[in-house]
Structure formats: C-alpha cells, structure tokens
Amino acid sequence: MSIQVINAKNAGFCFGVERAVNQVYEALQGGGPIYTYGPIIHNETVVGDLAAKGVRIVETEEEIAALPVCTLIVRSHGVSKQVMQTIAENANITCIDATCPFVQRIHKIVEEESEKGAKIIIIGNAGHAEVEGTIGWAKDGAFVIGTEEEAQTFSASKDNSYTVVAQTTFHARKFEDFVAILHKKGYNCSVVNTICNATHDRQQEAKEIAARADVMIVIGSENSSNSAKLFEICRKECQRTLFIQSREDLRPGDLEGAENVGITAGASTPRDIIEEVTVYVRNGTKL
Ligand code: F3S
Question: Could you tell me if the CB of 198 is within 6 A of ligand 1?
Fold first, then answer.
C-alpha cells in the first residue's frame, strides 16, 4: 500500500521571514562582522548555518550599545522604538531593518493611534518578541490579551477609546471571538485586523488537509508560536497529528496504516526540510 502525500502549498517561510533570511545571507557577501538582534528565525538548522558563517547574535540593548563596527540586522518580528533608538545611537552600527512590512504597518498604527490618545490593545501572546516590539511603539504601553479568560476579565476605563490590533501570527478565529467579547463588555474599540494573510492561508489550508488525512505532519520548531498554532488547528481535525522539527523525529509506527498523509510547516521552516520529510514519508512505507 503506497502513501499519498498531500503537501500544503502555503507551508514554510512566509514572505517576511524569507526576506529577512535573504538579507542576512546578502549581508554576509559584503563581509565584516554581522550580528542579528535575536535569532533571525526559529529554526536551528538555519541559525546554525549562519553561526558557522560567522553571524553572531545579540540579545540585549546593552550589547547593542557596546557593539564594535558591524552590520546589525533587525529580524522580521521587529523591535520597539526604544531599541531602534539604541541602534541609531551607536555610530558603529550599519543597521539593516528586516522588520516585515506587515509588522511595520502595525507599529505605525499603534504609534499614530496612541499619539491621538487611544489606548492600545494587542491580541497576541504576551512575551512574544513581536508583541513586545509592538508594545514599544505605543505612547504609554499597551494591554495584551492572549486568552479568552483575559478577554473576559479585561478591565480598564470605559471612558477611553481603544485601538485593537493583532499579533500577525495570531489565531484568526480567536481574534474575532476576543474582539466580540470586548464589544459585548461595552468597550469603545476600533479594530484593525492585522493578522497576516500568510498565517490565515496557511492555517486554512492546513485545516482542510488535516480533515482528509489519516496522519497529519506539522513541521516546525517548538518555540515557534505559529507552528504550535498550526498543530493545534490540525489536531482538532486529525487525531494523529505529529509535531516534528525534522525527518529524524519521525518514529516507527507513526505512519502505520496511513494512506493519506498531510504535510504542512510553520513560517520558519526551510523548504529543504519540508522536501526531506516529504521524500521520506513517500518512501517510508516501513515507518
Ligand atoms: Fe510578515 Fe506575515 Fe511572515 S507578518 S513575517 S509575512 S507571517
């Protein structure tokens, strides 16, 4: 019995991540020390390859302030206004801002609306780098709502007007639900759905494939929130959903009896890893 593989078309690097990774590789050709602010993507293989080529990572503003002459790349997640300021203040740094244009749009909305007096609510995961960066563009901070409970228990002055934005990789349905809760509670919210289409399309397609698959494989890193969400969505449609980082994570028996195997991948998964898993599954009838 041969295995039919259903590959998601919207899998792997999104536009913003691809652009950022390419910018690092392009910078490498120019020579000179290169740093990224945080790992450029949530993928050990790519980050390992870059490290082998000499790309180093800085994690704090103190480290940025102390950098010698170098090129510093800001990753697609973006950073706060304050971090941008710190980079600008160190004359040694040539900065390549690889913030995804869709994230830049959120920064602009948050900056402008908070400047006009609106309070900002970000629907997203507190502590996620993108959310932390976005908070830093609001004039006086922002509220973050990441769960239904937080939406239900949200409490702030109803005299304010609120601008609600989303983390680009947030779950589309949950975003709508949380906004509905805020409206129901009587908050005056102007809502900008800033969820990125790449995420929506990837989630939608993964859901459809998982519904017809006997086994669904999600390739992504454990610390990538969009991969974790893909897993959650697929798991609802297909009990036998596997979350792996690479081909090596597949275990004997994982595909036993499966005729249709779906494969999708998070935004930070390189194409060659998806291809490797696909080939392995296609040939791996003994798994
Ligand atoms: Fe940008 Fe969307 Fe990717 S916001 S980084 S293209 S998930």
Answer: yes
